[in-house]
Amino acid sequence: MAEKKIAIIGGTGHHGSGLVLRLAKSNKKVIIGSRSAEKGKRIAADLRYKIQTELIEGTDNLTAAKRANIIFLSVPYEALGNILQSINPGLKDGDILVDMIVPLSFEKGHPIINKAERSVGEQIKKIVSEISSEIEVVSGLKTIGSKKLADITQPLDCDVFICGDDETAKEEVAKLLTKIEGGRIFDAGPLSNSEHLELLAALAITINKIYGISDACFKVVGI
Ligand SMILES: NC(=O)c1ccc[n+]([C@@H]2O[C@H](COP(=O)([O-])OP(=O)(O)OC[C@H]3O[C@@H](n4cnc5c(N)ncnc54)[C@H](OP(=O)(O)O)[C@@H]3O)[C@@H](O)[C@H]2O)c1
Question: 81 burial class (0-12, 13-18, 19+ CB within 10 angstroms)?
Answer without folding.
Answer: exposed
